[in-house]
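Notes on consecutive records. When two proteins share a document, each keeps its own sequence and its own token line. Never mix them. Below: protein one.
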Amino acid sequence: MPLLIARNAMLVVIDFQARLMPAIHAGDKVLLNAGRLAEAARLLEIPAVLTEQNPRGLGPTVPELAGTAGPLISKMSFDACAEAAFLDAIAGDRELVICGCEAHVCVGQTVLSLLEHRRRVIVVADAIGSRAPESREIAISRMAAHGAEIVTTEMVLFEWLRTATHTQFRAVSKLIR
């Protein structure tokens, strides 16, 4: 089914870290959208997993996302799939909704590996970032060419809701106002 299904989703939040975010092009917008996704996941009881790349060097997850429910996986590999704890956290067949930094490094390598693992991967284009805009654009093209679905934050939120009669419609729709 092409539409996203909330009950079959998992949010994957990759490397939104304190020392990295100031260098990310349009980082405020990327972080805002990741926060919207994390809050919607909380409201809709969608599980999440967070990663931190070399937290001693890049610092912890930014405060705006640090409270996101779900396991926090520290890693040294750019590809989160190289960490057994990450693979354990995403075990099953949930569709994986991806946000994070950097699009052309940790996000890209993780997405490509997830595709090799035959997972349905949804990359939220306005919730991923890189230091250089061209790196982000090329990463999105490459991930799409290999089978990742490219969406926006609003697409995810409204597909998760499906209807204006959803009990969380008002709360989730407020996130994008």
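Protein two starts on the next line and is unrelated to protein one.
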Amino acid sequence: MQLEYWLGLGSIAFFVLFVLVVSSLYFFMFDDPNTSDLPINPDNFANPKLLQFISITIAPGGILAAVAFILSKYYGSKKIGMMLLVDGIILLVGMAFCQTLVEKINDSYMTDTVLLVPPLFMVLSAPVMYFGIRLMKVRKARPKKEYF
């Protein structure tokens, strides 16, 4: 397999990982921090964790998806375009699911970051899907026939 395929598969893995860690964090924030056995300060918990998850998962996944697109944009590839489309769909569906979890989060954990992460990444999934569709529509150049 070419490098682009491996980069596309890596980006899918990072996008899935991002959706899983954000949804698990939102599930964790359902409980009241005062009744928990763990000593958690809610003011210093949600924002740093979300920013950490963004920098560890979705940033490298986005970079891998962009490099896979750049490497294959001239000759086009339906497989890589499909991988980018899957990236966007995973991000859109996962963040829509996380958006449904926001209303169940305990009020002590509610910050602007918790409220903004799902809609922001739902919007950012659209360009990923666009570039995937664009990559699938690129046709390979036909070789010129030399008559003389």
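For the record: Residues 3-137 form one domain.
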